[in-house]
## 1
Amino acid sequence: MSTTNETLLREGITEKPESLWSHYIRRFRKHSLGKIGLVILLVLYLGALFADFISPYTMTWGDKTKPYHQPSDIQLMYDGPQGRQFKPFTYEYKITNIALRTYEPVPEHTIRAISRESRVGVNGLRVVADEDSQARRASSVLLAVTRQYRLGTSDPAVSILREALQDLEHDPDPDARRLVDLGPSTTEGGQQIPRQILLAKGNKNFLRFFNQGIIYSFFGIPTRTHLFGSETGGYFPIGTDATGRDLASRLLHGSRISLSVGILGAMITIILGLLIGGLAGYFGGWIDNILMRFTEVLISIPQLYLLFALRAALPSDLSSVQVYLIIVLILSFIGWSNVARIIRGQVLSIKNEDFVLSARTMGLSQFKIILRHVLPSTFSYVIIQSTLSIPGYILGESALSLLGLGISEPQSSWGLMLAVGRNFRVVRDFPWVLIPGFFIFLSILAWNFFGDGIRDALDPKSKH
Amino acid sequence: MNILNRIDWRLTFILDVLFAVFLIATGTSWLGAIVITEILFWLVRLLWISQAMLRFILRRLLHMIPIVLAVLAIGFLLIQLAPGDMFTQMQLRPDMNQGDLETFRRQFGLDQHWFIQFVLYLWNAIRGNFGLSITFRAPVFALVSQRAFNTILLSMTALIFSWGMSIPMGIIAATKQYKWQDQVISVFAFFGLAIPNFFLAFLLQYVITTTSTPPGTWLPIAGMMSIDHGSLSAVGRFFDVARHMILPVIVLGTAGMATLTRIMRANMLDIMNQQYIVTARAKGQSERVVVYRHALRNAINPMITILGFQIANVMSGAALTEVVLSWPGLGSLILSAITSQDLYLVVGSLLYSSVLLVVGNLIADILLAVVDPRVRIA
């Protein structure tokens, strides 16, 4: 009774009573784990949205000379010509034993040549010339560049490059950089393509924000600005995979698939569950009987086996978009039965309430009664159920991709990245391939926390 | 009833042995014979012990029939849906016996109308004939039932493990609410809930391989038996399998343990606030007696309801764990069948696994009915 009095009092001093939504939000704010979950989820989903920009490279770009490169260790202080200063860098590593994949930093006198491609999707050139003599280094760089661009020995570009190399070698700065413009070249299509080569002396990759790196298409606009990285490459925050692709970039791009499957799958499941559960509960009779017997059958098949069998019955030679959609559809086909059963139970009790009866006496059509009066009453359950079911979809996608039935190369997803973990020798020698697993774990944990918070906010009576 | 009362039901144990021997003599395997006789005779014994219970079980058995039939229909649908006939693939194999193919074609009526095919498929499936596996060139049923034993072994051990761990942990968390023991267990439960089975398997494999010096590891990280399993004694074999089972059981049991611990803790807290606990304390009973005699028994009851869900989860989880840790069970069988497009094997394992699940749920329901008399009446 005291609460009614309070509201009356509040109305007296022109304060509005609290709305339902602000009530929910206020209660959610009290749930500290729920808030933590929400923050983690925001970070993860923003990362997925801006994956192109945040990742140091692109999803498919790889340096084939660096399979299973270990995560780069960042040196913060740099002893340059201007003395010791704060300038983070990592050393350029080179593979020294191909069988054991051991890496060592290249010597200080190394010259590197990195091409700057102006077209999206073209794999650039990377030359690491660590020979002892200056002439040998110059010739190995020149050889690689002339091969890459199919230049003749008399081409003016060659002499430009040779002069730039000479100039670089005589630079007193041990970590000098030169951006050499070789002039445009013409492709088969008649397009003019600028050719630029970055020459770098020394064995350090300097890191910086808004780095100009591999070109990519950001929402349709070609750009080469990445949030963080090194313009000379060679920086791998969490190492590389078997073909030298940067794991951090693949992790970020993979999160798009892994994280969106959950939301999309839960949405389809809820729509199916509402529709079928609502129909069965409202109409009852034979519709109810048929639908509920069908859900019983679905529930009595172990989910993963059903997942496997459905995937087996569908063709395997599909494009990546089709595979993605099929995974979402299969997962939601398996998931809806539980939702439908519970919605049915709720609808059964709601349809005998007075407000439904009065809607019927006012002559509202059956369809509108279900849509406007019965289903909205199940709203809080639907919200709770969908947030709590998302981890299951994330797990389902990772499991399918892990076993080679889901997303396939060159696309990326967290489960697919973990698939190499099935070989325990890889895990033993290169444990950083397990990092995607931590992200699966983190996202599931965050969704669980968030779901708990939502449940406590929307349904304080529930026992869990 | 009068006749029944005059005979002591304990005498049926003699018939038990006779029937089992008869079954073994007529060609059933000893394990199957014991299972069949025990089920049959316990159903008969229920006539003496509790007729309400018998009616409940029979009703549940009747409910199972349409479900199994529908699962069969789904399996048949999957076979029909898949692109192409499996025959083309079979006939291309030079090492395939063409006579076998003919019997197979006749058994399943593959050249006839789909309706007749379905009836034939049902008829064969009921008799335990799920067709022929292309890759293994053996009857599907034999393959599947052989693997199913391993899956049941793994799932049951994992269930026992997770129950055995979660009940004490739930009690500790509830009696030491908000103390450090409770915090540790809650954190553990959250982590166990969120960590994917396969990822936990990889992590444990990593820990084991890096902490042991090659050659060999101090704990088997994959498979079910050592290479020299055949040459071991019976006891040695048992311990060999047990050692191999440690890792998969931990991987599979963790998720269930986390959920159960949370539920057990909530139940215990609920019960500990009841009036009769206050009464027990007021009588001056020791905390031990209050917790273990008065609270625990009532807190465990709702857990049995969860057993049904738990079985479904464990079966699914077992499939993934089996594949990742190469445990030769149903899950790894169905996966290898999928990759080799061996559809009859896929559907066979699907059917077998769902029968296992339905039977598991039946056992859970019977347990619930034993514990809670309200279920039998409803």
Note: The beta strands of chain B are 132-133, 138-139.
## 2
Amino acid sequence: MSNQTEQRPAESGGGVAAPAKRANVVETLFRFQSFFGLVTVFLAAVIFSPRNDGQILFLTSDNLFNIVRAVSEIGIIAVGLTFVILIGGIDLSVGSVLGLAAVGSAVLMVEDGFGVWTTVALVLLAGIAFGLLQGTAVALLGVQAFIVTLAGLQIARGLARMWSGGETVQISYGDGPGQAPMLFSLLGERTFGGVVPIPALIFAVVAIVAILFLRGSAYSRHLYAIGGNEKAARLSGVPVNRVKIIAFGIAGFCAALAGIVHAGQLNAGSPNDGIAYELDGIAAVVVGGTSLAGGRGSVIGTIAGALLLGILNNILSLNSVNTDLQLLIKGLVIVAAAALQRLRPTS
Amino acid sequence: MRKTTKSLIAVTCATAAFAAAGCGTTSENTGQVQNQDPTKNCKGPNEKYTIGMSQANLAEPYRVRMDDDIRKAAEKVPQFDVQFSDAAKDNSKQISDVENFLTKQVDLMMISPNEAAPLTDVVKKAYNKGIPVVVLDRKVDGEAFTTYVGADNVQIGRQAGEYFKNALLPDGGKIVQIKGLSGSTPAAEREQGFKEGIQGSKIEIAATADGEWERSVGQQKMDALLKANPDIKAVYAQNDPMAEGAYLAAQAAGRNDLKFVGIDGLPIPSGGIKAVEDGRLQATNLYPTGGAEAVEAAKKLLIDCQPVPKTQTLETALVTKDNAAEVYARLNQG
């Protein structure tokens, strides 16, 4: 977002005053599409919320934090996906990597007796390595990201099944052998008066770090440049391969982090964790206004997109909307968001 | 840069708003199991009650039927309004589903958990809030629930084994077993029970394949099993869809002499009882959904203010051609 925001006015700065101004308004509307969408859905949720003795159930603190907790894993994944999608790539492996990381966290602590920090470090390193490998295949071998990460999806799932012996590895806490340190159980807990779920805090930190990282860094300029026009970027001296590989590494890191959070929240690592999460993540990115063609979008948009889908899930459930109809409505929202992007004026 | 700053401020404000909304109240901590009076929510027959039913998935016909059984039984209790959610085999989603029911302040919770360990904490949270919890089919860890309603998988496996020993293959012979998804508890328990059931007979399990509970996988695995074990006489499948798949594979291979036994006995047109009636399966073992019993427990707790037993093990029954039509009709009446 940051670079784009800075570049755009410069590009269109020389235009005739009046039309340019109107174009700016339209442009702003579209740029913050996901934010307006989020506000709209939030207000709709307040209006349509079931009430109890005049209390708006949607707005109860428990409920709002439940939403953020439920969104946190997909949100973290989606932040990582944003980097890959900004360069016009895709990462289909993130759901499986989440499963692998969840299984890994459980096995390392419960069966291998590692401490929390060693486990977290090892799992995150494995996630980064997995992403970097995929990125290398995309950048250096020139295989399409869709294919590489489709293979990655299978490989990570296979590794998760092998590592766990095909069974859910349960995490119980304590000091004895076969038990995980109490510290890890914090992930499933709530803090600040028992209200704020720790996964939501982790999501917030990831989001802020990603926003700051994308704000004006050279790496971020390179990301947008590659997504906009890879050839031109290469010709103007952007280290295209390196930027690409790092983007996949970031996606792998985020997926592994989400997997650690997942294992902590559920007190278990199951080889079937995270199936189809990549699709929810991509949905959040798309609803957040990032173009799958690359070059346009933002982490802030992705976060708004993830929250929007989370609120939508929540309010539909609170109103006991039939599950089949829920799927239909969510599908329509994704299509609408993508269609709005097509309408957005190109500069 | 300016706009970026603005949006950062916007996000910060939103976060602050969320945090502010959070102040003032505290949620239940998931700590110790509190001893509760299970009939605390009982307000007698003149009140309305909302019940939340969290289903693990609706991909299996067995679970669709469970929801239907609950719906049907609840229709006869005018005080009850049952709301359903579908976790689509996702533990995280099921936790959210339960939390949403808590937000809606349901009077009673029913849950058929996707997996025990991940769902235990949130079920405990509901229970500690004083909401009666009826657990169906699959269990949760510990004691933080009001009542468990389900059939015994070891027992149903044993029943299937005894049918092989006493009726199907009294002289013994080789059979194959098609298991459910490896790693799932019902698969292990149905195998253990079956082995107990055939003990002391001359029946030998020549091979076991993982059919993942699915018809198509059962068919695929049976193709290979038939090639490797041409001398088998019968197939024990841990559910009816896999038995039907195996039947199709045997038909394609021209093995009309083989006998098939499944488990579940769903009383629906595509279910095991009809397959027995039509002669594709020799027998199926009725694995009741417990839907009606769960509603009965809810009625006792909320309307009659009566306690219910902690565990209610459902009766299973063998369904053969002799009683298939009668069982089908009985399970679908009213």
Note: The first strand of chain A starts at residue 51 and ends at 52.
